[in-house]
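Structure in, sequence out. Go:
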C-alpha cells in the first residue's frame, strides 16, 4: 500500500557489496515538518509564559526601566540609594563592566518589583464588588474611580490566561452569615415546627462544631488557590458511582432554523476544523479573556486548560481526569465501528475539504463491527465501578489498550449518527424533543461519555455535542460551541453543492480502523441495560418561546433572569400545588479557579408574589418587583463569594475528614433539588448577525433532572425577542411531566381588567410564560 510505504522514512537491505540504504525524502520531509510544528508550539508557549508572567506590564517596559536608571546614573545620581554600589563590590569585572552589570541587575530587580506591585494593585481592584450592588444609572464616585483604575491597569491587550495571577481568591464567608442566609432560604418551604427545629440545629452547630470546622476551612483557603473547586470536582463529580450519562453530562444543540449543509461528511469536516481552530487559539492563548458582559471585569479562564485531549478515566472508588498536552487525531464512531482520524499531516492542519474526504471514507466503509465493538461505548454510560473493573481487567494491555488509548488521547470524540434530527416534519416540537434525547443519551452506546466532549453529526447535517461535566461548567463549553457554529457558518462556509471549501490531497492515508478483542465477560450488556433503563425514563421537552423576550422584560425594568425564575416558581406552584427548594447555577469565576455557586431562587418574596397572584391580591406588581430585586440580590451574593451551599458543602467535607458527624450538615446536604435550573449565557453575540441573519439562532442546551421527582430546566435568552427552554423530568414519577397545559383563569382575569394597565402587562407576560412551561 502506498500509505504504508510513505510511513517508512528509510529502508535497507544487506547485500554482498554491503548495506543498501534507501531513504524516503517524502517521509523525511513529513517528519521534519512535524518536528518543526512541535518546536513552534514550544516556542509559542515560552513566549506566552513571558507575556502573561509580566502582565500587566510588558517585556519592553524592562528596557524603559534600564534606560531611566542609566540616564539617572549619567547625571551622577544614585537612584538605588547605595544598592548598585553594593552589587558592584561582588562583581569580578572591570570598573566599567561593574557599573553596567550592576545597573542592569538593579533595573531588573526594580522592574520585577514594579510588576509585582502592579499585579497586587490589580488583585486588590478586582476584589472590589460593591459595584455589582449599585442600582443601574446610580454609580457612586468610588466605583467610577475604580473602573478607571481597572481600565488603566488592563490597557495592554491580555492573553487568555493573563489575569489568572491577578484574580482574587474565593473568600470564606462568616459562618453566622451563611447560617442566617440558609434559614432565610428555607423559611417559606417549611412548617413553623420544622423551621423551629432546623433553627435549633443551626444554632447548636454554630455554637459547637461549626467554628472548629470553619478554622480548618480558613486554613485551607490560605493554602489553596480555591477552597471549594478541588473538593467540588472530586466529591460531586469524580466520586459519583452512578452513570454520568443523563445524571451529569449535558448537551448543546445546533441552529434552530438553519442547517448550513445537508451533507453529513461536509458538516463534520467544517465542525471538526472549527473545533481545532478553537483549540489552536486556546493553545496560543489568542482568545480574549471572558468578561462580565458590558464591563472590563475578567473571569477565570482555568477551565479552558482541559477542554481538549481530556478524558475521565473510571476508578473503583473515584474517577480521574486525564489530560494530554496535544493530540493530532480525533476518534470517530460510525455504525458500530471506531476509527482514528489524523487531522494533521506533516505539521499541517488538514483543510475542511480533506477532513470531509476522510469522513466520507468512513461513511462508505462497508465493513461490519467486530465482535463486541458495536455497543462498547455502553461501558461509559453505565455505573462507574463495573466499568473501572472491566477496564482494569480487559483494557490494560494488548490491542484493547492500544485502541482505548486512541479514544482517550484523541482531541475529542466524533459520532456520525445514522438518524436525522432537528425541527422538521409534521411534528416539529416532538422532533425537537427527540433531538434533545439523541444528544443527551443517544442509543446509550454510540457516544463516548467519558470524553471531555463528544460531537454528534446527524445524517441530515444537524450537529450537537454531549459534554462531560467534571472538567468544566456549561458557559465554557457554550463559548466553544458558539465559536464552532459561527466559524462553520460564516467563515468556513460551503460551496454551491454543500461541500466544504478547499483542495484535497488524495494521497492522504485512510482513517485507521481500531481493532478490539472484547470477551463476552466484559459486561457490556449489563452496562447497556442500566443505561437504557435510565434513558427510557427521561422525558425531554424543548420549545422556543417567541411571544416576547429580553427586550420586553427590560422595558418593564425587570431583570430577564429574575423574570424567568419567578415564572418558573409560578409554573411549579400551579403544577404541584406548593413550593420546593430551587437550584439556579451562578458562576464564581470572578475568583481564581472559581466554578459555580447555588442561587436559592425560591425565596419568601417569590412565594409571597405567587400566593398573592393566586388569591388576586393587589398590588401584586409591588410584590413582583420586590421578588425580582430579592432574586437579583441573591445572585449577586452568590457571584461575589457569599453564597450558602458551597460553604456548607466544604464544612461537611471537613467534618468527614475529622470523623465527626453533624446532624445539621447531614440534613442540609440531603435536601433534594426538585427544581434545578440554569441559564446558558450568550457570550459572543458579535459572531452572529441576528439583524441580517435572524435565522441563525442557537437553541442552547439542556441537562437531565437532578431529582427523580423533579425538573431540570435550562434556558437561553437569544436576542431581544426569544427565549429557548429545555425541560426534563422522569416518566417514573407520575407527578412530573415536561409539558403542562396552562390555566385560563388568570388570563381571563387579565382580560376582564381586574388589574392596572402596567400590572396587566406584567401578568400577561407571566401567563404567556406559564402556558409555555
Amino acid at each position: 500500500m502506498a500509505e504504508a510505504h510513505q510511513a517508512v522514512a528509510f529502508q535497507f537491505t544487506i547485500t554482498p557489496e554491503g548495506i543498501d540504504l534507501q531513504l524516503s525524502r517524502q517521509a523525511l520531509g513529513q517528519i521534519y515538518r512535524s518536528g518543526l510544528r512541535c518546536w513552534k508550539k514550544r516556542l509559542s508557549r515560552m513566549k506566552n509564559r513571558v507575556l502573561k508572567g509580566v502582565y500587566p506590564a510588558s517585556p519592553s517596559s524592562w528596557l524603559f526601566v534600564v534606560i531611566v536608571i542609566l540616564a539617572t546614573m549619567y547625571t551622577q545620581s544614585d537612584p538605588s540609594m547605595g544598592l548598585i554600589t553594593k552589587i558592584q563590590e561582588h562583581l569580578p569585572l572591570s570598573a566599567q563592566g561593574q557599573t553596567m552589570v550592576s545597573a542592569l541587575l538593579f533595573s531588573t530587580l526594580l522592574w520585577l518589583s514594579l510588576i509585582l506591585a502592579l499585579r497586587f494593585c490589580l488583585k486588590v481592584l478586582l476584589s472590589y464588588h460593591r459595584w455589582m450592588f449599585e442600582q443601574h444609572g446610580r454609580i457612586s464616585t468610588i466605583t467610577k474611580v475604580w473602573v478607571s483604575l481597572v481600565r488603566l491597569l488592563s490597557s495592554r491587550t491580555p492573553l487568555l490566561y493573563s489575569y489568572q495571577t491577578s484574580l482574587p481568591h474565593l473568600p470564606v464567608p462568616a459562618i453566622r452569615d451563611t447560617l442566617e442566609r440558609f434559614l432565610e432560604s428555607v423559611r417559606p418551604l417549611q412548617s413553623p415546627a420544622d423551621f423551629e427545629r432546623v433553627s435549633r440545629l443551626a444554632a447548636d452547630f454554630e455554637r459547637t462544631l461549626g467554628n472548629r470546622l470553619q478554622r480548618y476551612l480558613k486554613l485551607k483557603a490560605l493554602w489553596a488557590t480555591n477552597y471549594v473547586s478541588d473538593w467540588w470536582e472530586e466529591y460531586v463529580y469524580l466520586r459519583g458511582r452512578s452513570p454520568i450519562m443523563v445524571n451529569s453530562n449535558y448537551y448543546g444543540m445546533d441552529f434552530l432554523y438553519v442547517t448550513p449543509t445537508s451533507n453529513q461528511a461536509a458538516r463534520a469536516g467544517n465542525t471538526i476544523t472549527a473545533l481545532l481552530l478553537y483549540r489552536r487559539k486556546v493553545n496560543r492563548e489568542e482568545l480574549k479573556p471572558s468578561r462580565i458582559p458590558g464591563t472590563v471585569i475578567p473571569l477565570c479562564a482555568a477551565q479552558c486548560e482541559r477542554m481538549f485531549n481530556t478524558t475521565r478515566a473510571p476508578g473503583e472508588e473515584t474517577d480521574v481526569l486525564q489530560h494530554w498536552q496535544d493530540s493530532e487525531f480525533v476518534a470517530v464512531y460510525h455504525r458500530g465501528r471506531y476509527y482514528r482520524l489524523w487531522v494533521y499531516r506533516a505539521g499541517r492542519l488538514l483543510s475542511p475539504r480533506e477532513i470531509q474526504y476522510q469522513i466520507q471514507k468512513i461513511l462508505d466503509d462497508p465493513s461490519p463491527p467486530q465482535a463486541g465493538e458495536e455497543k462498547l461505548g455502553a461501558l461509559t454510560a453505565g455505573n462507574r465501578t463495573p466499568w473501572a473493573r472491566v477496564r482494569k481487567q480487559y483494557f490494560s494491555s494488548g490491542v484493547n489498550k492500544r485502541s482505548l488509548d486512541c479514544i482517550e488521547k484523541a482531541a475529542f470524540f466524533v459520532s456520525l449518527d445514522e438518524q436525522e434530527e432537528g425541527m422538521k416534519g409534521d411534528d416539529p416540537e416532538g422532533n425537537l424533543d427527540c433531538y434533545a434525547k439523541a444528544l443527551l443519551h443517544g442509543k446509550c452506546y454510540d457516544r463516548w461519555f467519558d470524553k471531555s466532549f463528544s460531537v454528534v453529526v446527524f445524517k441530515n447535517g444537524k450537529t450537537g455535542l454531549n459534554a462531560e461535566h467534571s472538567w468544566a461548567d456549561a458557559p465554557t463549553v457554550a463559548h466553544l460551541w458558539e465559536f464552532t457554529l459561527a466559524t462553520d457558518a460564516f467563515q468556513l462556509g460551503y460551496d454551491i453543492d454543500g461541500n466544504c471549501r478547499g483542495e484535497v490531497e488524495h494521497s492522504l492515508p485512510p482513517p485507521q480502523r481500531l481493532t478490539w478483542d472484547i470477551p463476552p465477560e466484559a459486561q457490556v450488556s449489563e452496562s447497556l441495560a442500566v443505561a437504557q433503563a435510565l434513558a427510557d425514563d427521561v422525558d425531554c421537552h424543548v420549545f422556543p418561546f417567541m411571544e416576547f423576550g429580553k427586550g420586553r422584560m427590560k422595558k418593564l425594568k425587570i431583570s430577564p433572569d429574575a423574570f424567568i425564575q419567578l415564572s418558573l416558581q409560578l409554573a411549579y406552584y400551579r403544577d404541584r400545588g406548593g413550593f420546593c427548594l430551587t437550584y439556579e447555577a451562578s458562576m464564581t469565576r470572578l475568583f481564581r479557579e472559581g466554578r459555580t455557586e447555588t442561587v436559592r431562587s425560591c425565596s419568601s418574596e417569590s412565594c409571597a408574589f405567587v400566593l398573592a397572584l393566586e388569591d388576586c391580591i393587589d398590588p401584586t406588581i409591588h410584590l413582583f418587583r420586590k421578588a425580582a430585586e430579592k432574586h437579583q440580590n441573591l445572585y449577586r451574593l452568590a457571584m461575589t463569594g457569599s453564597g450558602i451551599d458551597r460553604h456548607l458543602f466544604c464544612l461537611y467535607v471537613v467534618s468527614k475528614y475529622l470523623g465527626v458527624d453533624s446532624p445539621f450538615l447531614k440534613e442540609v446536604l440531603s435536601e433534594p433539588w426538585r427544581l434545578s435550573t440554569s441559564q446558558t449565557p450568550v457570550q459572543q453575540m458579535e459572531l452572529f448577525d441576528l439583524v441580517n441573519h435572524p435565522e441563525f439562532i442557537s437553541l442552547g442546551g439542556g441537562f437531565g433532572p437532578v431529582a427523580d421527582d423533579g425538573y431540570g430546566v435550562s434556558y437561553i435568552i437569544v436576542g431581544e425577542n426569544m427565549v429557548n427552554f429545555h425541560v426534563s423530568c422522569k416518566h417514573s414519577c407520575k407527578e412530573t411531566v415536561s409539558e403542562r397545559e396552562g390555566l385560563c383563569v388568570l388570563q381571563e382575569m387579565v382580560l376582564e381588567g381586574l388589574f392596572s394597565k402596567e400590572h396587566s402587562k406584567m401578568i400577561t407576560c407571566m401567563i404567556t410564560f406559564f402556558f409555555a412551561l
